[in-house]
What we know:
Elements: H1 2-13, E1 20-25, E2 28-34, H2 37-40, H3 47-59, E3 67-73, H4 77-85, E4 90-95, H5 111-116, E5 123-125, H6 130-134
Parallel strand pairs: 3-4, 4-5
Antiparallel strand pairs: 1-2, 1-3
The protein binds zinc ion.
Residues 46, 48, 75-76, 78-79 line the site of zinc ion (ZN).
Amino acid sequence: MRLALEQARLAREHGDLPFGAVIVREGTVLVSAENSEGQLADVTAHAETIAVSAACRMLERRDLSDCIIYSSMEPCPMCSAAIFFSNIPRIVYALSRDDLPHIFRQRKVRIAQLAQDWDYRPEVVGGVLRQEAKTAFDGIQLPLRVVPRYHQPVHLRPQG
Ligand SMILES: [Zn+2]
């Protein structure tokens, strides 16, 4: 988990919101990833989706049922689905959205509920190193939904 928190700090250093994720297999770190939404200009480039993709490519298989994912923050519904599609049996996270109500709005759909909708019933554990994880958000005050940077239109230009 400490490695995931380190990745979160790196993301912030690189201009992104502080989220990080690490996938461990047989006691060894397979991949670690930082949130890169801004860096890659890609809304799907969350730490967890990057980590899941990288782990699948590394192992050359779509099944990660022998892996554990650690995330600095409760995975969002997109990341939760990616994690569950890859059959990861155990998800450990530090902060939940409720820990930072001044930044994140409440969500109706949470990872614990989504986990119950999957046949293999993944185990979800939250609150690990919670206080330590909070420090990555020090100084961030505005609710994300009103930060203008995140609401700039994306202009897709045809090549050539
Ligand atoms: Zn996500």
